[in-house]
């Protein structure tokens, strides 16, 4: 099967995984690499057809050598043919299970792409160990998770087992899932004194995508663990409260506790602004959608964790669903900060509490 995607041509053999719906994810990640700007070698783990590694190299002048890794011999051969067909010379190929490759290789790549089918959890420890072995200097870890049913709480026990966290299976599930994933990666990195700062955190379609800046720093690694916390959620009133410890207070009948969650900022505003600028110069098929998405992420970034879904609140309090922008304007007039969020089209992020959001909805 022949596939064309943003100027490259791929030959995808039978039995080699390729998901055309993930094109927007590849677009955004390529923008992030270009926006980072530093010279970097890239490792495309779980490379399959090689589409990510090829696009990263062809679209960004700061990408040097590209390493393609997959446990499937057919996939490695496919990636090799596609790399050659697209004029890539500075690259290497390894038929190896990813965890074993990361344990044994001496290759020092500055950008590690972990894009497995399903959960990335089994590979995070090995990814962090490899990055820590490479010594000082900034590196980047890019994680894709498609096990959103687990992280969003539809499979509660699997989330507790795989990510060592209690999920929220309600209107907050996508943001909660992203924050659980970040917390898990940071806990794995802390074992190697690895400080992992999220630069970009996306929830879209059926996947989460997070890019971390990684550096060897025991002090910062400890400090970031202090930003982990829990959310007390009242299912009857929809009130919520952030806590440092899960059992810091006595719970009422309708209250649930989720976490631990990463409670810091989800994005680097500086990186987002550079990505927005680069997107304007590229000819992506979903260019306009990406521009809107990046702007949403920029606007929500400075606001507190967890949003208010206006439709969920309206349903609970028997109100007519209001226009989201009208509520945002009302909250701003009252002196609060407020914005839409990329996690939910009917939700707002704000410094206001539920009581003030309700007042805005009743105007």
Write the layout of secondary structure elements.
Layout: E1 2-5, E2 8-11, H1 23-36, E3 40-45, H2 51-59, E4 63-70, H3 73-85, E5 91-95, H4 98-104, E6 111-114, H5 121-133, E7 139-145, H6 148-151, H7 156-163, H8 173-190, E8 194-204, E9 207-216, H9 218-225, E10 228-234, E11 240-243, E12 255-262, H10 269-281, H11 287-300, E13 308-309, H12 310-316, H13 324-333, E14 338-341, E15 344-350, H14 354-362
Parallel strand pairs: 3-4, 3-6, 4-5, 6-7
Antiparallel strand pairs: 1-2, 7-9, 8-9, 10-11, 10-12, 13-15, 14-15
Strand order of the largest sheet: 5-4-3-6-7-9-8
Give the SSE order as H and E letters: EEHEHEHEHEHEHHHEEHEEEHHEHHEEH
Tell me the helix content: 40-55%
Euclidean distance between termini CA atoms: 56 Å
CATH superfamily of the largest domain: Vaccinia Virus protein VP39
How many strands, what sense, and barrel or not for the largest sheet?
Answer: 7 strands, mixed
Shape: globular
Just name the CATH architecture of the largest domain: 3-Layer(aba) Sandwich
* Overall radius of gyration: 21 Å
CATH topology of the largest domain: Rossmann fold
Please identify the structural class as seen in this structure. alpha/beta
Query: What is the tally of helical segments?
Result: 14
Low-confidence stretches: none
Please tell me the overall pLDDT.
95
């Amino acid at each position: 099967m022949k596939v064309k995607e943003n100027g490259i041509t791929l030959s995808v053999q039978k039995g080699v995984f390729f998901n055309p719906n993930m094109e927007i994810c590849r677009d955004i990640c390529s923008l992030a690499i270009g926006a980072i700007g530093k010279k970097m070698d890239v490792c495309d783990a779980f490379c399959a057809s090689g589409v990510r590694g090829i696009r990263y190299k062809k679209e960004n002048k700061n990408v040097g050598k590209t390493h393609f890794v997959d446990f499937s011999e057919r996939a490695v051969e496919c990636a090799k043919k596609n790399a050659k067909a697209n004029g890539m010379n500075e690259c290497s190929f390894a038929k190896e299970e990813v965890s074993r490759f990361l344990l044994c290789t001496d290759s020092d790549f500055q950008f590690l792409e972990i894009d497995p089918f399903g959960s990335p959890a089994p590979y995070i420890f090995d990814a962090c160990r490899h990055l820590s072995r490479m010594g000082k200097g900034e590196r980047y870890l890019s994680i894709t998770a498609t096990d959103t049913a687990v992280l969003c709480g539809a499979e509660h026990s699997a989330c507790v087992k795989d990510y060592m966290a209690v999920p929220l299976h309600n209107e907050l599930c996508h943001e909660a899932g992203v924050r659980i994933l970040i917390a898990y990666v940071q806990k794995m990195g802390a074992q190697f004194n690895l400080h992992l700062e999220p630069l970009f955190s996306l929830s879209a379609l059926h996947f989460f995508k997070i890019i971390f800046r990684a550096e060897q720093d025991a002090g910062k690694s400890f400090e970031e663990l202090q930003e982990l916390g829990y959310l007390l959620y009242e299912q009857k009133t929809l009130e919520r409260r952030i806590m440092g410890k899960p059992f810091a207070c006595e719970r009422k009948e309708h209250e649930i506790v989720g976490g631990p969650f990463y409670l810091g900022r989800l994005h680097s505003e500086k990186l987002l602004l550079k990505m927005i600028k680069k997107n304007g110069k590229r000819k992506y098929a979903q260019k306009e959608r990406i521009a809107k998405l990046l702007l949403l992420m920029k606007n929500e970034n400075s606001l507190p964790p967890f949003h208010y879904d206006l439709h969920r609140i309206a349903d609970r309090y028997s109100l007519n669903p209001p226009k989201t922008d009208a509520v945002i304007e009302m909250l701003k007039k009252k002196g609060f900060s407020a914005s839409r969020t990329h996690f939910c089209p009917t939700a707002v992020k704000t410094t206001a509490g539920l009581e003030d959001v309700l007042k805005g909805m009743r105007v």
